[in-house]
Amino acid sequence: MSPDHTDRTDAGALRVVVFDVNETLSDMTPLRSRFEDVGAPGHLLPTWFTGVLRDGFALTAAGSYADFADVARDGLLSLLPDVPGWSGDADAAARHILAGLAELNVHPDIPAGVRALREAGLRLVTMTNGDPALTEGLLERAGVRDHFDTLLGVGGPRCWKPVPEAYRYAVRMAGVEPGEAVLVAVHPWDVDGAQRAGLAGAWLRRGSAGRYPETLTPPDWSADDLEELARSLARERRRTAHP
User: Fold this and answer.
1) Which residues contact 73 (CB under 8 A, 6 or more apart)?
2) How far apart, in Å, are the Cα atoms of 83 and each of 43, 59, 71, 78, 123?
3) Domains of the chain, with CATH numbers?
4) What is the pTM for the complete model shown?
5) C-alpha 208: how far from its chain's center?
6) Per residue in 200-223, pLDDT tens?
């Protein structure tokens, strides 16, 4: 057994791959230049995005809900005026930065990995804390939209991942049981959340030197990129497929 694979002999046949979108499929680094366009340092991108996730998680934990776009805008309106020496129209700056979300592209490993998964007989869906309309454009630009059955977002269950109901909503919409699906993400908290909801979890390291947190549930699979992971999931599909 590969050290990058955890035994799942008690699970059902693998039928569906559920993809996270932000940073897993999409390369968000071009948004750095959007920050620079409005006179803010590009290194604020991860600070802002982490804050968006924090606030979305907090709203869900409190029993409330807001769309990603609204939380993201609030985050920028709070962050930009605190940048030393920054002056400008915060509303206009936030609009400019957020408009960049509609122009992002996928990571280089995604198209070939997606095609390999489909060739292995796996169905593909997305489940994002963001806007499924942005996912649609992202996959269209990559030429792989037709490889995905459906594009989902947390506006459906009105709760952000990693709450269990968000993952259960995704598999219900895909028409499978949790044990027949795997969540693919670059974020360990997302992988952990999916596994606690009964799905398998696959962590994309994508060349990161970072380690998976020991306090979280270990992933069933880990791989450097989607092409590598697709080979592992194709083997799992063959192993668990019904005759």
Assistant:
1) 94, 98
2) 12, 25, 19, 10, 45
3) 16-27+105-240 (3.40.50.1000), 31-103 (1.10.150.240)
4) 0.93
5) 16
6) 999 999 877 678 999 999 999 999
